[in-house]
Specification:
This protein is of the alpha/beta class. The strands form two sheets. It has a four-stranded parallel beta sheet with strand order 2-1-3-4, with helices on both faces. Strands 6-5-7-8 form a four-stranded parallel beta sheet, with helices on both faces. The radius of gyration is 17 Å and the shape is globular. The protein starts with a strand and ends with a helix.
């Protein structure tokens, strides 16, 4: 089986591949993997405040390129473009997974007051929509609140991970006492060390790769 990971940041090696893709491949030695990255996708999405039709067209072309390269599933690692991811999946002949979906299911199972912590404002609302979709599927009413660690993603892009992590920790501290569970809204936040809390703090990463693997296996049956 072959997994394609589709990224919107040119720092995908340090944010996704080294901490998550490589361990996943080590645990699944029969699995092949390929990366497609276009950092202009997130730049255009942030500038417009939403994933534009041009972003959607490029993502479709990348997804079909993955199909042509023999991929059995596509994991899109950016939540800011997840509305496009969900729209396009019906047009793609292999499973397409948005990185937040398995975490959203877990969050709905673990609490009613769900907090979303984001380092990019454009990621928070798409993750909120996914959580509300999963809650509706589960027949559960939830309250969702959003906290944005302003400037954190800019700091990370500038190479200042300590500042990024400090901003995320400060925002987490503000959010944690208001909710039953916290969801980190981007994979780039998953490596932040933070104090433990009495509530679950859920992050994208291994669970997202496992969901992609499960989708591939299911699609092969």
């Amino acid at each position: 089986m072959k997994l394609c990971t589709l990224h919107t940041t040119d720092k995908f090696m340090e944010m996704m591949s080294d901490p998550f893709t490589k361990p996943f491949l080590k645990d699944n030695p029969d699995m092949e993997q390929m990366d497609i990255t276009d950092s202009s996708l997130i730049v255009e999405t942030q500038k417009a405040g939403y994933a534009t039709p041009a972003v959607a067209r490029r993502m479709y072309n990348y997804m079909m390129s993955a199909v042509d390269a023999g991929a059995d599933a596509i994991l899109v690692t950016c939540t800011s473009v997840n509305t496009v991811t969900k729209t396009l999946r019906d047009l793609i002949p292999i499973p397409v997974i948005s990185v937040e979906e398995p975490v959203a299911e877990e969050a709905v199972a673990k609490g009613r007051k769900i907090g979303i912590l984001s380092s990019v404002a454009t990621s928070a609302e798409p993750v909120k929509r996914t959580i509300l979709e999963k809650a509706a599927e589960a027949g559960k009413e939830v309250e969702v609140s959003i906290e944005v660690a302003d400037g954190a993603f800019d700091a990370l892009n500038a190479g200042d991970r300590p500042l990024h992590d400090d901003k995320v920790r400060a925002a987490l501290a503000k959010l944690a006492d208001k909710v039953d569970v916290v969801v980190f809204a981007q994979m780039s936040m998953a490596l932040v060390d933070h104090p433990s809390y009495d509530i679950p703090v859920l992050k994208f990463g291994t669970i997202s790769y496992e969901a992609a693997k499960e989708a591939m296996l299911k699609n092969q049956k």
